[in-house]
## 1
Amino acid sequence: MQGGTMTRLRAWRVSTRVAGVLLGALSLAACAPSTGDSAAGGHSAKVKLTVWSWRVEDVAAYQKIFDAYEEKHPGVTVEFQTFKSTEYETKLGTGLGQQGGPDVAQVKSYGKLQPFIEAGQLAPLDGKVPGLEKFDKTVLDGARGKKDGKIYGVPFAVQTLQVFYNKELFARHGIQPPATWDQMLAAAGKLKQAGVIPFSVSGKELWVLPIVHEVFGAARYGGRDFEQAVLSGRKTFTDPDYVASLDLVKQLQPYFPENVTGVSYAESQLLFTSGRAAMFPGGAYELGFFQSQAPDLDIGVFEVPPPPGARVQHPLTPGYADGSYAVSAKSAHPREALELVRWMATPEFGQLFSDKLKQISPVPGVTAEDPLVRQMAGNYAERGSTYLMLVHFRYGRPVGTDVAGAAVQAMLLGRATGQQAGQRIATELGKWFRPGS
């Protein structure tokens, strides 16, 4: 009886040791990287990163771009979620403030970025993204905190402002891209006489009008020389050269669509893609949309020649950093989110972005496949200026693009002169802007 008990006790001890070994093996297996992990990044299997954006029209292109990332990171999937541009900032503020929001967010640049930084909703990227220090400083400034000077995003695009034109319409009416202001006006007059809208412009939505002013007026007010003068306080928006640049928009109104202040942005795009309008003053971001909506449309671009009295005697291409990709401070997968934005700073991503979306990538070493994108990038590199209202005057309320848009719209409605528009801009921005700050 006693011997049987000892035998059973030894058997119990052996089985306990075996069970312990098995449990230990299972625990190690649970802690070890699974076979589905990314060899490149060492991610946990089945990590889903959510990327938020306001670029609804870019969904198909980004799916292809992120397919390339997922191939090299088999444990990670990237979900690209978009929202209406008019609703995006509100939704993003809510989403970044709680769990379940985006891991990576497309954020706007300069002043539009600051509220998210000040709320502590974005992770600083200084020293964490190889190659970021090689980006152009003016582009990086779009992702920089105004107060702390830290970088909070990887810039994704440089936008330039110029005139798109319909090559077939130009050829039909014997018109060449203008080399002088007078040639541009003569071409506009010829087109109008033939029943073609010369310039497709939207005067209904305020954000469009400062772009129109910048395209036609940058050389007149002086480009970067005026930029430095107004930032230092040596000049303001009542300066005669700046007022004269505003007057140019009013002078060109006969060549805009009839009742231009009632024309929406979408309608202005359709006027151009349908061939009813010959020229479209706008940003480089329009190209991909135009080509997708009208694949057979033969498009060219040109810089606006300097008008009479211009402070700069050669064409200018205004530009700005469009935005960047930032890591949410509350991401459930901060390591994987950081690796994704690191990839966004590489030539591989920059080339995919440029070629799929027909835009100018700020990543050093990227050369656009599309000849028009290369042309716009080259123009900016050689004769670039700053889109003043967007870059410097969105750090307070009211924002410069809204103020300038309302001022130009009042001119088009016949309710203000250029002098009054300039005074309105100076007064409104003077409520918060302090030179030298």
Note: Residues 2-31 form the longest helix (30 residues).
## 2
Amino acid sequence: MKSATILVADDDAAIRTVLNQALTRAGYDVRITSNASTLWRWISAGEGDLVITDVVMPDENAFDLLPRIKKARPELPVLVMSAQNTFMTAIKASEKGAYDYLPKPFDLTEMIGIIGRALSEPKKRVDRADADQNDGIPLVGRSAAMQEIYRVLARLMQTDLTLMITGESGTGKELVARALHDYGKRRNGPFVAINMAAIPRDLIESELFGHEKGAFTGAQNRSTGRFEQAEGGTLFLDEIGDMPMEAQTRLLRVLQQGEYTTVGGRTPIKTDVRIVAATNKDLKTSINQGLFREDLYYRLNVVPLRLPALRDRAEDVPDLVRHFVKLCQKEGLDAKRFDGDALELMKSYPWPGNVRELENVVRRLTALYPQEVITREIIDNELRTDAPASAISTEGLSGPVTIAQAVEENMRTYFAQYGEDLPPPGLYHRVLHEMEFPLILAALTATRGNQIRAAELLGLNRNTLRKKIRELGVSVYRSQRSA
């Protein structure tokens, strides 16, 4: 059987050598060039079964070459590499018809796997109009965590798959949803967002599905809901974990049947919207607590996407700072420059409010400080002033907070979420069930995974502990004692 021929174009000699060796070892015939013109000559002559090309070439940008390749040989898979590891690079690669995108430095094993899939199941891709060449990049960051997010989003652009975005507050969940809409197949339709936590519980169904005149007290006119407003576009359901159970049941029915009725209405209305949901809660815990429907969770969690906290991608802080400074300049504020020591301090800060907190700090510094250069001393003073208080109030308490005090504070916050209403029945068993997991995990961690010692520590029978580990899904880690 004839070996597949891989055409490689990259002006970096070291990368050409590495790719030549790796692809040859994998059993492929390899032809390598350092310029786009030679690559195009090979392709137009019908040579090659797959192309690997860098974006930036000495004589031509690969994004300019890709439409010609897809027009001449639409079945030819093209794998794009780039050191310009931005969201727009991944999106442009997808829009121009690339089979896949890999940021540099790339993993050779992953590349070989992608090549194998591309050659075994070549996909024809529809060429689309050029992407807008604007600088309004919606997502910023070149970290490995963000690169994976860019790749997932690029693959989702031309689908209508339901997406569940999770992550801490301030990580940019709505920004990701907007990017998916603005650069996807529904970009000509409306983007409609609704925050479940910001709407009174008794009005959520009306907000989502609309209501008829006279449906309830105060309904003097017919009102359109968010589903109707988002028709043909994207509906972003933010803080989905705060949706009341009754509304969850109606939403599940819409997802299953593709139609809904307004509050007080009888005629089913067909719906054509893409659903993107987001939450900062652990929905599996909410399911165990009886606060979220398990069947709805699996309907929404078709494609899960977890956004990293800013502290987990600290290398992106300088890029984000420069991005927010540019935004401030466009709004008429003076240009600022952050010196190296200032940026290093910002990279080491945990940013409990994530990207939203960073943006607020940059805006505040830009607006309030007359200095052209923001120094480490300024940042140190600002972050010290901005440091959040403890989540648990210890005013009037001496010593560390006890478990009882922590539980009491947690229960006070939990009941406050329901206002004048009460939580669902079964609270006693839900709280005990939720406390078991961290208790058993802490015991296993303290005993380095030794279940006999952990059972003794907890005062449980060993078989009982094993049963609880299985039921709760506790991961048992065995670690070596440090020297």
Note: The mean pLDDT is 84.
